[in-house]
Structures are given as structure tokens and as C-alpha cells.
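User: Is it possible to get a 3D structure for a protein together with its bound compound? The compound here is glutamic acid. I've pasted both below.
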Amino acid sequence: MSENLNMFYAAQKQIKDACDKLKCDPGVYEILKQPARVLEVSFPVKMDDGSIKIFTGYRSQHNDALGPAKGGLRFSPTLTLDETKALSMWMTFKGAIVGLPYGGGKGGVACDPKKLSPREKEAVTRGYIRAIAPIIGPMQDIPAPDVATNAEIMGWVMDEYSKIKGYNSFAVVTGKPLILGGSQGRTQATALGCCFVIREAAKKLGISLKGARIAIQGWGNAGNNLATILHEMGAKIIAVSDLNGGLYSEQGLDVATIVKVDGSLMQKTDAGLIEYPGATKISNGDLLAIDCDVLIPAAVENQITGDNAGKIRAKILAEAANGPTTPEGNEILKTMDVFVLPDILASAGGVTVSYFEWVQNLQSYYWTKEEVNQRLEQKMVAAFENVYNFSKEYSVDMRSAAYMVGIKQLADAMKARGWLS
Ligand code: GLU
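Assistant: Yes, that's possible. Here is the predicted structure of the complex:
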């Protein structure tokens, strides 16, 4: 039978496993196994050719026991309600592990942003925000960037919501441009947070990051910033890839050249394909099987599956993407000698600095980049230690431990609220 790649199924399974290991009150799983609220919207957009096109969007709010829903919004042609639900569930755990006063949210529009003009993209964003405005707000649900969305789009989100309200609502969305109340350090936060937990894992394993060999899958905001930061930490970036293919060099890729590539590494320029002297072309699949110290899936979900998990030859697997490993892939990883930094820990840097942005907006008092990064480091290191200690105490893998830390927080909050018997 082929593998079940439904992310909602994966999220439910991970939560159930952790509830069982913790021997939780059955009510905990019953409440957490689905989002508390989902909204599907259809809205019209006037296209550049004058036609009207209807777009479908979603917003899912998983659980608000610890605080308002928080999580990104993505533009993806294949986006479904189940994917949105799963992503909102993972956000609940990310926030809980890092100790943020949030529940999980996620949303997006089923569209191909590459096929939209800049004006159409803005119209889609504004149409979506008008459609979901009744359920978002600084104290209800706070969107942020995710796959194929960025600070510019968050600026439109803030502006559209503010127009509806009749006053400026900076705290309704995070990941905004600095001039509209964005935070220092937010753009690099997912990558920097991931680097902090990689550093802590390397210490536990006695691996030095100086000269460590790194492979990164995905060349979006996370992948690109990961290469920059790890290079600065003294590591060697030996492979990178995106949807269209990848590059490999045992000596280390020329980071100064690759980080300048905005968009696909394999994009065509007027002069043909970008040249990378000394690098060999590899496929996305080859990258996952490369012999390296740290492998970082930083693209999208369902990359490490029952089919290819066994081929991984990394010492540390740091999941900067959401849901890159399927349940079948995970069962294989558990039997292997690879230290897993699960997505809900390794990718929590973004939402952590989003939290800082929200706090700064609510106080209208802004921090320096150094203050932001220092607080991010404290939170990520504490979260890593907590999950690591849990994994030792309960003799479980790091992914189970991460879910268990999150479930415990949520169960305590739900109990204190009187939601459980
Ligand atoms: N989209 C990011 C994530 O999946 C960031 C969410 C946020 O900042 O709220 O973690």
C-alpha cells in the first residue's frame, strides 16, 4: 500500500503517540485532535485582463488554551483545508515548546503566486484578509509570513485590516516591514533559531561546527539565511538545492555567490544558467542522501518518507521546514543513528521573533537587533534543553519528546481552565 501523505493524518498521529506516552487524560487528545475553528472563504479578484477570478482561502485555529492563535499564511497552488489544519496544529506545539503565550493558527490562499502580477498578488492578499477579518485580530489570531509570502505582503495585511477597523492595528500581523512596526531580526529568525539548536545538538554529540559539512534543501528565506549564518559560524556548505535541482562541492560551495541568488538556484539569466565554478549539479533527491554532518530540509512537507529515510547519512537532521518527515519516514529515522531536531523545535525561531514583534507593537517600544537575537537565543537554547532532557527522562526520540513537552503545557493549561475532568 502506498504511504499516506496526508499531513492532517500525520499531525493527529504525532499528537496521539505523545498523549499515549504521557498517559494523558483522554480528554487531552479529544480536544487536540482537530482545530477548534476552521474557515474556508471564496473571494473575487479583478485580474489584470479585466476578468474576475474566484480564489479559495483557508484559516485554521487549532487551540487557544495558551493564548491567541498564531501562525503564517501561505500562497500555494496545492493548498488544501487538511494541510492548513495540520499546519495550525504544528504551530500550537511550536509555540508551547518555546513557551510563547499562543495557540496555533495557519492559513493561506490556493494560488500560484508565480502566475500573479504584483498588482494581482496585492489584490489577492487584500481580498483574503477582508474575507477572514471576522476571525483575526491582535487578541484572536495573528498571521505571519510562510511559504511564498513575505514582509511586503504582511504590510498589505496590516493595511487592509486597519482600514476595516478604522485605526492602525500593527499587532494584527507579524513579519511586517520595519517601517510598519516590523521587528529587527524577523527575516533571519527562522534560520538563526535553527542554527542555535543545531549548535546545541552538535555540542551534545561532540561535533565542532567549525568545518562541519552542511547540506540544505530549499532556497527560500530559511535556506538562504541558513547558508549565510552557518557559513559565518565556520561551517562548510557542501550542498544546496531547490525544486529545480541542486549544487554540490566537497570543498564547500562559494557562499558569497549562492546567497545572492534570489529565487531558483537554477534560474536562467540573460546569459543562460547561473554559473557556479567548482560545483557539481545534483538532484533534490541526491541531496538528501549526501554524507554530511548536518542535513537541513528547509523547503516543504513530505520530503523524507518511507522510501528515502533509510538513505540519510547525516549525523544531525535539522528540520527547518514544516512537516518534512512523514510518519513512515520517522519510524525509520528512529532506528537510525541520526540526531533529529524536529520541525516543531528547529523551525520555532520565526514564530519566536514574531512574538517579540507582537510584544513590541503592543507596547509601541522597539528593540535593537542585538536584544532580539539575544532573547531568541535564550528561548531556543532553553527549549532545546527542555526537549533533550525530556527525551532522556522518558527514553524517547527527540520528536516524541518535543510533542510531549508541548502536550504537557497544553494539558496543564486546559486543566487549569477547567476543560478537562
Ligand atoms: N510561518 C512560520 C512558521 O511556520 C512563522 C509563523 C509566525 O511567525 O507566526 O513557523
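The pocket of glutamic acid is lined by residues 70-72, 94, 144-146, 174-175, 322, 347, 350-351, 354 (CB under 6 Å). The radius of gyration is 21 Å.
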